[in-house]
Amino acid sequence: MKLNEQMQYWNYAAVKVLDIRRIVLKKEIQQGSYTLPAACFVYSIRGSAELQLNGHKYRSEPFFILHGAKGSLLNIQNHEDFEYIMLYYRAFRAFPNYRKRWSQGQALGAPLSLQYGFTPSSPLKLLRYLDEMEKVWAQQSNLNLLHTKSLFYQFIHELMVQLAAQEGQTELVDPVKQTLEYIHQHYREQVTLDFLAEQFNFSSRHLSMRFKRKTGYSPIDYLIQTRIGKAQDLLAHSDAKLGDIAAEVGYSDVYYFSRIFKKHVGMSPRLYQKKKKGLGQTEDRPLQVSESSIGWALKSRYIDYDNHYRYINGGSTMKRKNSSSSMIMIAILSLTMLLTACSSGTANTLSAGEGTGANSTNSSSSVTSETGSQVNKDNETRTVSTIKGDVIVPANPKRVVVLYLQGDVVALGVKPIATSDVYDGAAYKSELEGVNSLGTWFEPNPEAVIDLDPDLIIVPSEETYNTLKNIAPTVYIPYEKMTTEERLHSIASIFGKEKEAEVLIDNLNSKVEESKKTLADAGILDKTISIIEGGLKGMVVVESKQFGRGSQAVYEYLDMKAPKVVQDKIDVVSDAAGSTISMEVLPEYIGDYVFRSVYEGADNLTDNPIWRNIKAVKEGRLIEIDFDFFYYSDIYSINKQLDFVVDKLLSAPRAH
Known about the structure:
Strand content: 15-25%
Helix content: 25-40%
Number of strands: 26
Oligomer: single chain
Structural class: alpha+beta
Strand order of the largest sheet: 1-8-3-6-9-10
Largest sheet: 6 strands, antiparallel
Shape: flat
Number of helices: 21
């Protein structure tokens, strides 16, 4: 990170001093490794030592200053008395917008994530502020805490002056390395992705992507693998009680631990222990169902939606120990299929996890291109046909978990028990009050989902489907390949709410026609619209109907047009698409009206001469839209967005 960028950050930073302490480390005492609980300055005053921070070594003589990020591993090796001051602090942008920081092109967590050390040219100036902070901090009154904060800013100013004079070298701490070290040291503790991200001053998405790219695992998957590995070692080499082993590797609930272990290893902890000690027999004895594997090695099917861990073998031919056991299993399966055929009129075997890919042939079923459903009234379940095969779901699910697709679910009158994170400004945010949050939609925590004991899970991607499919009946909705109406029909079929979906779609179409007539009567419908997002360094111009930021409402439903240079791309692009345009050529891409997506911390463009002189801006036809509100494209959000768009267009000065 360049020094000028550090200065810019500090200009917009709010700071909280957490602690300041003076430490004298005697030569006969070795401190050992220490994880910094917050961003920290270490300032040596007397003696010398070797400081090691995240594996990087620094030779510390008097007045050497070292900066470390939160979560960094500090080790001090001293051969004489070593006196130093540690200053802990927290800093953040006064207008934080971490989940949308990618739009601003800023380095996440900077400069808190920077690691550097140097000997200042005027060390006593820095020491003066530290000494004064230490004295004031000890008194802990509100006035003195305010004084401490003012001294911290003066300390930072002087630090920047001396860094600039020396052009000190800094380096960005590797968050993956920090996360790995933290997991190995703290796997026994409660750890979540959001906690890890906050620990190292990164966004959850950014940390997860970097971690997976480097290790092949998500952080939570790696945590689970670490815990399971430790448990396997304890099971194989000790006679400890199962509850004690579970607690030792971070699980307070022994039953929950057993389920997680069985999922990942393919057998129960006790069976694993017996096998490792040479006392167990093979796992796949057909009459001992309680010991059947539910791990990755078998493709499994649900047989009871109220108990997500009871399975029958499915699909592929399994190797058996001997022919007699094979015949017994075949007889059992044949009898099961015969009884099923007698009670329901069909001999099809249907799955609620990973399906066979074959649709049911019941004449009463309602099937769409991606999902359909049929009701089995005998056991109050519904069979939903999906691209993953037929999935058996409860006819009236009570504990629904949904990722990303919350708006369509809410519009159908279903309130889930848990969802992935929803932006604060989302149109349906208030409808989810009291609902559990599972973090980012693309990387749910399986352990958290298991704890909720859901009877139905709805997911938007193959990755999330594979992560959660063994927990409860899971339906994968490939939303990015569907129109709003197709997606709503698919979700409605899961709940048997096809009629409600038709009403929602009819109401939306009616609103669209009324809105188009209103705009046409006002002489606006034939005007051009541009949708942009960004700042001084460049603007993203929306070039498809599927980009979001109001593109569905404006270009798809209202069928309004963009300037020709943009419309030519909209006409041929089916996926989400946009181009980054420099401020110098931006006016060529702006229509009669311009919608700009904004968020906290977005650049203020009012002083930019190019921006000010864009005709639509100059004549008051700039309409700012909230990033959160226009991020989603479900039927609930589209309805609200249409209201907003029409209202703002009607209230803006007319374009001629």
